[in-house]
Design a protein that fits this description.
Blueprint: H1 4-53, H2 57-79, H3 84-97, H4 100-105, H5 113-126, H6 146-158, H7 162-187, H8 192-203, H9 217-236, H10 244-258, H11 262-281, H12 283-286, H13 290-313, H14 317-338, H15 355-377, H16 382-385, H17 388-409, H18 413-416, H19 419-439, H20 443-464, H21 467-470, H22 480-483, H23 486-499, E1 504-506, H24 509-517, E2 522-523, H25 526-529, H26 534-537, H27 544-553, E3 557-561, H28 592-596, E4 603-608, E5 612-617, H29 626-629
Parallel strand pairs: 1-2, 1-3
Antiparallel strand pairs: 3-5, 4-5
Length: 632
Amino acid sequence: MINTSALSARSPRRRHLVASADADKMTVRCLAYCLFPLAACGYAIAYTVALRTGPSGFVHALFWACTVLALGAAGLLIRSGCRPREAGVIAILLGGLFYLPKYFRSPHFFNFHDELAHWYETTQLFAGHGAFAYNPGNLVVQYYPGLHVLTAALSSMTGLSVFAAGNIVCAWAHIVVCLAVYGLSRQMGANPGAALCAVLLYAASPAFFYFDAQFAYETLGLAFFAVVLACAIRIASPHNRVPWAEVGLFGLIVLALVVTHHITSYLLAAALTVLTIASLVLRRRAKVPARSCRQLAALASVAILANVTWLVTVARYTLTYLSGPIQADLAAIRDYFAAGGHTSRQLFSGSTIPSYEVFGSYAGVLVLFILYAWVLTGLRRQDLRCDPRHWTLLLLGALYFVSLPVCFVFNDPTVKRPWAFAFVGLAVSCAPVLHRMLTTPGRILWLGGVVLAAILYVGGVVTFSGEDIRFPGSFEAGSDALSTTPDLVAAAYWTDAHYGEGNPFIGDVTIAQVFGAYGRQDPRTYDEFGYRPWNVVFPKHLDSTVYDELRQDDARFIVEDLRTATLPPLPRGYYFNGKEPDANTGNRPFDIQSLEKFQYGPFAEIYNNGNITIWEYRNWLRPSPKQGAAKP
């Protein structure tokens, strides 16, 4: 017989304990949510200090302290058992919070290399030149107008500037990627906490904080990629019946991606093809319906056909654009083996970043490798070994590890480009391990999970983005972000206001981008057209080399930044192009005498703000006929 009196006696105590536990949990959750705005304010303080003092040790420490605060807040919410909608809200918070460092890096104008070309292309829409306007800074950008059209539409509808609208689009894309990774993980069967762990791991992607937060087509393309891949994973799930209308909707997103970014659309087509083939091969074991296989095949076919059609009919120059870096990488690998496996590259040589960041960059790779290896051991399970979705994500994640050996041989950003996409697979596959650490009873394992995540963030950010990309500071001749100063931007606007657009000019790689975008001038560069502008700048005297190159370039203006006469081109390694004399040697092939020689010849100084000088070549007589002829 049940002792009801004893049960009733204990019931009030039990209710009190439950209420106390709920109150403690609510207190922890409130504390966690307070940490997000605190981290945002910390980022703002860190970048405000950096604008005044440069990237000091305090700035680095405060930046990582804010990042750890955000990770700790997310870890507390995961441990307290967040529900699906709440986890989605947290994913939105993380996407928005981790966009702030890039915005605070330059809160007044775009100053990354790719951003200038996209800014120019967007402003050309307002000037009435259409979506495929000739772009002097980057010829391939004009063939992928998705970002420009979306930004111009937002700017036109709201009255915001292109800079403000561009930041809103990129922040939105940042958030969409996080939500897509969350949804993809949920489709793989993860609970809300584990899916949120996938978002945390993906945000540790080396490109997430800066490269894929800049105003560039890959930032928007990555959002499309993640959304379509999440849809494809949902289609391949054995118990989901996706309507064809929904598949058609995501097919439209595939088309939007094709006209937004080349590499992203190619990788999406490859991922969809792999998922389709794996689903067909493992259809019986994985119990994938035939209808789902047909839908996957249709989505993959749309991606392949759209890419081929766009490439052949509109964007044929993309082949030229992509073939150059690929050939350079293959040549570097061939030279490496020809030299007996020796390389002159020294990781972090000359770097001034804190030692814990160097340690984190190595430790992050090791932690990722251990997590990935641990996930591979799970293939012993029948349900995972026969799951085409699992294989697709594992192969996508393997792109990161395949590229690592090449990164140790030579420094080429092209090799690192697949990392942003590989982390989609890595994050979803490895999330259960982090989730177990954050939810297992005991504080030590939880703290270990937060520390592990922090190591991944340090390693991710440091291995992809140099200090000049991450923080403002003093002028550096070989850095796009630190070379794009307000006085250079002002000089570009002045030139457009006084001489109009389209004037051919000579300047180093940063000046070419800034004057081409903000000044709407026509740069003479080696990258796109084979010009050798260093033949005009490097000589100390006005000799035949200077005048021959001026005639060949048909240049009206010579734009100089006097600060480059005393600084080596670090970290890029060159002033104009890697083919110039003494490139990548650390030597300066010119000095202040080289820049001052134009006062003795047929040149007129039309502008000088102390740092930026503009010379007009008086023998220039005609508009440039090469702007149109040089278009691919």
